[in-house]
Structure formats: C-alpha cells, structure tokens
Specification:
2 helices, about 290 residues, seven-stranded antiparallel beta sheet, mainly beta, about 30% strand, five-stranded antiparallel beta sheet
Length: about 290
C-alpha cells in the first residue's frame, strides 16, 4: 500500500510565475500622468514665487495654489503651452479689480504674477506713484513700516532695498519697508511697497481696450508690469486670454536654506505663511 502512494505532491509541477504585463503597466502610468496634467490644466496647479515684485504679500520662496477655472479656459490654461495663441476664452469671465493672477506675457512663454488694477474701458494713469482710474485717484493710506525677517530668500540686499536692513528688539535681522495701503473703487484693499520717487511713477492716461486688463506689482518700484516695456515688462494692458488663473492661497514657504539633506527641509519652513489666503480683503468702497 505504501508503494502505491509514492507519487505525491513532491513530484507535482510547480505553478509557473505570471508574466508582468508591461503594456498594461505603462498604460496605467500614462493614464495617471494624463489625469494629473488634466487636473493641473483645468482645475488647479502649484506656483512658485521667484521674485520680489509682489512683496509684501508674496515673498520669494512662497508656494501657492492657482485655480485654473476662475475665469474660464484659454490657450494658456494647459500646464504646457502647446496650443497656438488664440483670442477668447471658454466659459470666460473677467477678473475683478484687485485679483492676483497668473499670466503669460504677449511674446513670452514664462508665467508672471501680478494684481489686476484696470478693467476694459477704464482710463488708467499714474501721477507721482498714485494710480488714477477714470480721473479719480485710488485711495492711499500710509501705514507703519513692515518688518520682514531676513533669510536666504529675503536677504534685503542693497541693490533691492538700500538702507532697509536692520534688527528688531530681539536682535534678529529684518527688512524694514515703507507701506502704502491702496483701496480700489470696489472696496478691495491691499498693501504696496513704495520706496520713493521712481521713473515708473508717472504714466500718461491709457484707455484699456475691450477684453484687456492692466496689471501692477505690489512692489511698485521693482515690478516689470504693464508700465514697463517688453521684453522684460508687460508693455501695456494684457488680453484676458493671456491670464492663466487666479492665486488662491499659500501652501507653504521656504527660506532658501534647504539642501539635499531632507532633515534641512523642516528647518527651512516659514511656519507663519502656510494657509495664507491670497484673495484680497474688502472694505466699504471709497466715496
């Protein structure tokens, strides 16, 4: 009887390993990348602040979220500008005065971030640094200087902010900058930096064309905006189809001290900036 049961599981064939379906794997990865690109192009995408042009509200090193659907979609909406330049928007709407927007200049492919000041049909001019809309000066209020902590991303260098570097009561290095609070006709209010007389403080009256907007940086003396000629500036008002989205809030901010060591990342976070809304405050409109 024992001899009849010698053919047991030890002589059975081992099951073959299933072969990897590489075509299916690559298809899944492709569909995932396609979904991410679609989200970035149609819904929202991250944005990095590389310059001082929107100080004091935005600092170099800030990371923020831009909503792509706020004004509808145009040729600049995709994450990569693959479509030819064309006029108009799909389900489009104009920004409101005071909105912070991402845009692509007329003859460039890089993105800028500025604040919408003038709308179609407005006559805009600047006199001595003050904005005038349709002949009426935008309300200004001189505020106390702002003290911005000095770090690697905000060094407060002499070329940008000569004489502004100092220390606070605790001995920490700060950048002390003069602030003017502007209030637009719709009640939107925000702070700008005004360092004094500058060659871009005076702009002759300009009528903003249909479906165009006029944009300024909050750091008025160091912003390549609608006042500044191309190739560095926006060279006047910008077609609304060049606007890629609206800045919503800061996700996190880094002080510029990160390295390849992941442990350095934690110490580089500016903890007080995460979650800061970029939608402008509103007060009762000026009379």
């Amino acid at each position: 009887m024992a001899l009849e049961n010698t053919a047991d599981s030890s002589s059975a064939k081992k099951p073959e390993k299933e072969k990897t379906d590489w075509v299916g794997e690559f298809k899944s990865i492709f569909l995932l990348l396609l979904a991410v690109l679609a989200f970035h192009s149609l819904v929202a995408k991250p944005f990095y602040i590389p310059s001082v042009s929107m100080m004091p509200g935005l600092l170099v090193g800030d990371r923020l979220i831009v909503s792509k659907y706020a004004y509808g979609w145009s040729w600049v909406s995709p994450t990569f500008h693959i479509f030819p330049r064309m006029e108009g928007r799909l389900f489009g709407s104009l920004p409101e005065r005071g909105d912070i927007v991402i845009l692509t200049p007329k003859d460039q492919s890089s993105d800028y971030i500025k604040r919408v000041i003038g709308l179609p049909g407005d006559t805009i001019e600047l006199r001595g640094g003050q904005v005038f809309l349709n002949g009426v000066g935008v309300q200004q209020e001189v505020r106390p200087d702002i003290a911005i902590p000095v770090d690697a991303n905000s060094p407060c260098g002499p070329l940008e902010f000569a004489g502004a570097r100092g220390t606070d009561a605790s001995g920490n290095a700060i950048c002390s900058l003069p602030i003017v609070r502007e209030t637009l006709p719709n009640g939107v209010t925000y702070d700008v930096i005004d360092l004094g007389p500058n060659m871009s403080d005076d702009v002759a009256p300009v009528i903003i064309p249909e479906n165009h907007v006029y944009l300024l940086g909050d750091n008025r003396d160091q912003s390549a905006d609608s006042r500044v000629a191309s190739p560095l500036g926006l060279d006047g008002s910008i077609p609304w189809e060049n606007i890629g989205g609206r800045a919503e809030f800061i996700t996190f901010s880094l002080d510029g001290t990160t390295s390849i060591n992941p442990l350095s990342w934690f110490g580089a976070f500016r903890s007080d900036r995460a979650g800061t809304s970029l939608r402008p405050d509103k007060v009762e409109p000026p009379k």
